[in-house]
Amino acid sequence: MRCVGYWLVTVLLCVLTYALLSGNLQNSKKLEKFRQDVEEMAHVVLSKYAGKGDPTLLMEMIDRSVKKHLPKIWDDLNALKKGLKAGECPSLASGKPVFKIEERVNYASKELGAKIIAVQARPVCSSNYLKALLGMEFTTNPPVRMLESKMEPGNCFAFRNDTAVVTIKLPHLVLIDRIGLQHISQKQSPNGDTSNAPKDFTVFAIVGDRDVLLGKFHYGCIQSNLLQTFVIQPAEKYDLLRFHFNSNHGHPRYTCVYRIVVYGKM
């Protein structure tokens, strides 16, 4: 009984905390439905579990409710956190949000636990055997930069010429619906040149010993649309992706990949 009570208190605290933070945001209907589900769980505890009910019934209800509502709440919390870091805050007193939550969760994010598993590329600067042996070929512009949200000049994965293959492990199995890239603007570039942006790239999902083609894409490096995403038709959930960068926008010596985005649902 104590275990069940702990579960209910934890769920209720999560709902109340999120409601206080988000104020009158668009997901209020989902929160209300989540609250109703929690009340239904509590009713089961009071009427059935105390003495003769089956405890697995409650556990199944909790599992169904969390799986149904938590992904959307996680998306909103992640965007809310970014808004707060930027100095924006929802107005709890007036009940009107100061900003709108629109950005989705990027599962290819170092902050969430995404990792670089393998890299096939040539470093911009000449390497040597010792650096290669220690995995320090890309010390200046390491591949992990692609998983960071900091869009500043030089904060990218840079490799020689225009081809590279990078394998990424997502923090969870994700039903992917969009994949994309982001590059800095010409105004941000010290010399105004963004020809080092990737252009054509292909993405595979790795499932066991087979590769699943998710698509062949073209990043346009359009100044008014620097974050470009491409629709994926999800067939199943994936957590291992391989990116093939096949060309850039004309730079003769190297390519810079600033940010990879992977959107979807758990």
UniProtKB/TrEMBL annotation:
Q: Which GO terms describe its molecular function?
A: protein-membrane adaptor activity
The entry's keywords: Membrane, Transmembrane, Transmembrane helix
Q: Which InterPro entries match?
A: SUN1-5, SUN_dom
Q: Locate the SUN domain: which residues?
A: 105-266
What parts of the sequence cross the membrane? 6-25
* Entries under PANTHER family matching the protein: KLAROID PROTEIN-RELATED, SAD1/UNC-84-LIKE PROTEIN-RELATED
Q: What is this protein called?
A: SUN domain-containing protein
What organism is the protein native to? Glossina pallidipes (Tsetse fly)
